[in-house]
Amino acid sequence: MLESKDFNASLYVGNLHQDCNEATLFEKFSTVGSILSIRVCRDINTGSSLGYAYVNYTKHEEANKALDVLNYDQLNGQPIRIMWAQKDLKSKLPMAANLVVKNLPRTIDDKILRDMFSMYGNILSVKIVTYQNGDSKGYGFVQFEDENSANEAITEVDGTLVHGRKIIVSKFIPYKDRKKFQEISFSNNIFVKNLTPSFSSNDLEKLCLGFGSITSARVATNEDNRSKGYGFVSFECAENANRAVAELNRMYLNGRRLFATVAKTGFINI
Fold first, then answer.
1. What's the predicted TM-score (pTM) here?
2. Dihedral, CA of residue 2, residue 84, residue 226 and residue 178, to nearest 10
3. Which of 40, 85, 167, 220 could form a disulfide bond with 53, CB atoms 3.0-4.6 angstroms apart?
4. pLDDT of the residue at 65
């Protein structure tokens, strides 16, 4: 596990059983180092556990060892999830390094998913989305520490077979980003994602010119003018848009499998 000076010696421990308390956690985590403090987060009204806690070690090296050794261990019959703790963590995570992994076999759990991606860089969190009974929904999320690691993971893992299934790996696009786009005459427009970071609006236009006359093509970018990995193309007629979708969807380009669909939103203000 790569060390990070930003995270010190504090760990976030999630997916805790309701009966898990500070004493239970101390017994578990003290086996790998000296504990400074443990706090199970509870509802202020009922006192019931919220299912997560913070464990603070005296040394970063001990916390790092706990993360490596204890992650996904069973505690009160549930596999615990451990990651580095940090204030306002969600606001500091690089969104461009957050991946969604689809078409996973139902036997893949958090630990296996982490193992699948760990060789490509430092992973901050992994989560398989489940039903209320704990069964996998067949997809999950992998949050890397940096975008380069995420890009490498997409290139290497997307389209590979896992237990007979071809898995799909792409950048996660937040709902708030999708809502930025104003609705326009959607039948003439297509949405294309899983583009390489260097793929420009000009490249997207050239890619689609063969399907008919284009009125505009735009790759979405962030504040640093870096590609977000997706874009929109507006054709003069719906027939050409549909033909482009039929040809581009699941086509491999620059080592990545593209995903294309008729868009219900345009690309104003991206």
1. 0.58
2. 140
3. 40
4. 94
Question: What would the pLDDT profile of 15-72 be if each residue is shown by its tens digit?
Answer: 899 899 999 999 999 999 999 999 999 888 788 888 889 999 999 999 999 998 999 8
Is a pLDDT exceeding 70 seen at residue 268? no
Q: Are 57 and 36 in contact (CB under 8 A)?
A: yes
DSSP state of 106: T
Q: Which residue is it, tokens 């308390």?
A: 21
Over residues 216-222, the mean pLDDT reads 90
In what helix (H) or strand (E) does residue 243 lie, and over which residues does it extend? Answer: helix 238-248
At 150, list the tokens: 């995420």
Look at the chain and count its residues: 270
DSSP assignment of 118-130, as one string? GGGS-EEEEEEEE
Report how far residue 227's alpha carbon sits from residue 146's, in angstroms, rounded to the nearest whole number.
15
CA angle 236, 240, 246 (to 5 degrees): 145
> What is the three-class DSSP state of 74?
strand
Q: How many alpha carbons lie under 13 Å from residue 259 in its C-beta half-sphere?
A: 13
181: CB partners within 8 A, 6+ apart = 232, 265, 266, 267, 268, 269, 270
**Contact between residue 65 and residue 33 where contact means Cβ atoms under 8 Å apart:** yes
- 100 - beta bridge partners? 141, 170
